[in-house]
Amino acid sequence: MQNVHYEVRGQTAVIRMDNPPVNGLSWALRSGILAALEQAQQDAAVKAIVLTGYAADFSGGADIREFGTPKSASAPNLPMVIRALEDSAKPVVAAIGGNCLGGGFELAMGAHYRVARADAKLGLPEVKLGLLPGAGGTQRLPRAIGLENALNMVVGGAVVPGAKFAGSKLIDEVTEGDVVDAAVAFADKAAAKPGPYPRLRDLKVEYPAHEAYLQFARNMVGAAAKGAPAPLKCVEAVAASASKPFDEGLRHERELFAQLMNSPESRAMRHIFQAERAAAKVPGIGADVKPRRIEKVGVIGAGTMGGGITMNFVNVGIPVVLLETSQEALDRGLATIRRNYENTLKKGKLTQEELDARMARIQPTLSYGDLKDVDLVIEAVFESMDVKEQVFRQLDEIIKPGAILASNTSALNLDRIAEFTRRPQDVIGLHFFSPANVMRLLEVVRGAKTADDVLVTSMQMAKRIKKIAVVSGVCDGFIGNRMLARYGAAASDLLNQGALPQQIDGALQKFGLKMGPYRMGDLAGLDIGWAGRKRRAAENPGAYKRVVADLICEQGRFGQKTGAGWYRYEPGKRDPIPDPEVEKLIQQFRAEQGITPRKVSDAEVIERCMYALVNEGARILEEGIAARASDVDVVYLNGYGFPALRGGPMHYAEQVGLPEVVRKLRQFAAEPGADPSWQPAPLLVRLAEQGQGFPA
Ligand code: 3HC
Ligand code: NAI
């Protein structure tokens, strides 16, 4: 029997699924379960069966590693296994602990009875992979907990603790103790009764006004889905449970499941699921590299970033020493943190007690001496090499040996920063994104001398503070901002040639981005980029080419914070209003540069902006700044509002086809006066010629 342990306890056969890490229902495991069930049926001494997981989890659902791999002709599919549970002449009890998700939950619903630990996590998260439950979940769950509750679970994909189902038809017994012991005791009692045993499929979905409710649900879900096909198909599948006989409903569910499985949106979302988990693994660093302990953190600078960074740590119980240069700056920073928490409190997502506990974990200080015992210190002071030098030289004097010294710089050379200390091996970049307490991305910048254990510690620490970490090498802007610079330049070209900010933003937002580059610029503040351009112009005066953004900034228009940027804003409002003044500045710029404007289509906006990202992403890969194309996608999804339904720029390029991307890049590069960075990256050309995608 593959992936299954079989033992008999008294008169009950206990079948334990064993397919680490989460008992994904691979073809081998499915075959194993069927074989074990058969053995239990044959054994006359066995009167009842318990199905459970070998380790903590029941099952995390379909084995995601098998998605897209050829089907084994002889392997039973999940509905067959579930059918075998239902048809068992001996009562089957599912003993549910840990994760019981997706196909795993559907499997449990095929048992005659379910015993769950109070803290077991039950859910149908398929929608988060652009799918719907495809093994009867949409038909059995409404029969067990009602149409509305089931619809919420299927469409929302949320995980619900076992305790919540006490007293429902879904869970027959909730236990705080050993779930297998409880299930065996339950099974013994069940076996004392004659069959046939209860099956969820035989229940009726009770909901008198279901059509009116479903119509309401379709409207709500359709509006919230933002073009994602899965949520509405989830509603359709659940609706079938109320309107069709069970087996017909099951067939309908299966058809919808197959449609979604082949949809580009689901492919993109499954790609991202795997990409986010792959990003946590650093090639070349083995499991033997042990992380350092992080129990106390120091943060230097209580400004926009320092405050948000501090919140990440105190939110998960890690105390922070927060250092500033003046009492006033310190008070301002603390007040902002408190205000953020108070807003969360007002929304009912935080208690006063927890708010106080989090604030109490922050130790404000003006003295470096208070940083003596921190295990990690993160610098978030002004973006100036001189200021960073001062800070790192001081830190080097004070911080205990073995502590990690991190910089939140957005673009400065980390290797230079490391040289300000006598321990460059302990220096790393931890590039948080604004707002740092909200954005999930963390670029972990590996310097030339960063020690492996410092990198491993940072990756684990990221998980602890609920961030998604991606390793980047050292270069100007690291992965995300370096690509963003090319994307911004492509948008800027379009602006010069005839488009307006609102057209460019509109086209990209229709494509799925949360915000186009001009709205994003206004939100982040245009002065940061302007300072960077001025720095580069000063470093290399001959090479600097003026851009429209310079004219905008020269007017003191720095975005939302000054009430005007690429758009104008009503006082206190954040809605961007197209501004004729901006159009005039753009026209003035075109006149200065001798450009005759032309009509730009929305399709061209997408092509230029996306392929600029892809081309720079490919260079970043070639240079080894990013380890995998999927890491680049993770950066763009979690840091830049790239739509999950597109799977990230590199995945999008593969879907378009790399030969087509290369053809377009060549076309852009051949235009008179084109920026040389339109030349396709050699890696892209090679992969396109070989008919390959990006290496995994
Ligand atoms: N199959 C195979 N491997 C899986 C898996 C699955 N269903 N779910 C998670 N894993 C793997 C991850 O890839 C990761 O592997 P790694 O260590 O090699 O990187 C490992 O398990 C741990 O995963 P996480 O890092 O995500 O660990 P967490 O503890 O944070 O989360 C989890 C565990 C809650 C199970 C989370 O991984 C999860 O949500 N998994 C997806 C569950 C899901 O979507 N199931 C539905 C699948 S579709 C389906 O069942 C179709 C059916 O309706 C027919
Ligand atoms: P900020 O100006 O809001 O805050 C900087 C804070 O550092 C100020 O409160 C200042 O008083 C303090 N400070 C200055 N010198 C100091 C010193 N020697 N010792 C202690 N404190 C000192 O700046 P912001 O936006 O928080 O940026 C900080 C760093 O984070 C910069 O390196 C920036 O490039 C980077 N960053 C900024 C992002 C953003 O969107 N704002 C995003 C990602 C990184």
TrEMBL record:
Listed name of the protein: 3-hydroxyacyl-CoA dehydrogenase
Q: Which reaction does it catalyse?
A: a (3S)-3-hydroxyacyl-CoA + NAD(+) = a 3-oxoacyl-CoA + NADH + H(+)
Primary location group: other
Subcellular compartments = Peroxisome
What SUPFAM superfamilies has UniProt attached to this entry?
6-phosphogluconate dehydrogenase C-terminal domain-like (SSF48179), ClpP/crotonase (SSF52096), NAD(P)-binding Rossmann-fold domains (SSF51735)
**Which residue range or ranges hold the 3-hydroxyacyl-CoA dehydrogenase NAD binding domain?**
296-472
So which residues are the signal peptide here?
Answer: none
**Under the GO molecular function aspect, what terms does this record hold?**
(3S)-3-hydroxyacyl-CoA dehydrogenase (NAD+) activity; enoyl-CoA hydratase activity; isomerase activity; NAD+ binding
Q: What species was this sequence derived from?
A: Verticiella sediminum
Listed A to Z, the keywords are: Fatty acid metabolism, Isomerase, Lipid degradation, Lipid metabolism, Lyase, Multifunctional enzyme, NAD, Oxidoreductase, Peroxisome
Q: What is the lineage of its organism?
A: Bacteria, Pseudomonadati, Pseudomonadota, Betaproteobacteria, Burkholderiales
Database matches in PANTHER family: 3-HYDROXYACYL-COA DEHYDROGENASE-RELATED (PTHR23309:SF51), 3-HYDROXYACYL-COA DEHYROGENASE (PTHR23309)
Which InterPro entries would you find in this protein's record? 3-OHacyl-CoA_DH_NAD-bd, 3HC_DH_C, 6-PGluconate_DH-like_C_sf, ClpP/crotonase-like_dom_sf, Enoyl-CoA_hydra/iso, NAD(P)-bd_dom_sf
Using the record for this protein, list the coiled-coil segments as residue ranges, or answer none.
none
**Which superkingdom?**
Bacteria
Name any Gene Ontology BP term: fatty acid beta-oxidation
Q: In which pathway does it act?
A: Lipid metabolism; fatty acid beta-oxidation
**Mind telling me which Gene3D superfamilies this protein's record contains?**
1.10.1040.50, 2-enoyl-CoA Hydratase, Chain A, domain 1 (3.90.226.10), NAD(P)-binding Rossmann-like Domain (3.40.50.720)
Q: Does the keyword Acyltransferase apply?
A: no
In its keyword annotation, does this UniProt entry include rRNA processing?
no
Domain 3-hydroxyacyl-CoA dehydrogenase C-terminal, which positions?
477-569, 605-691
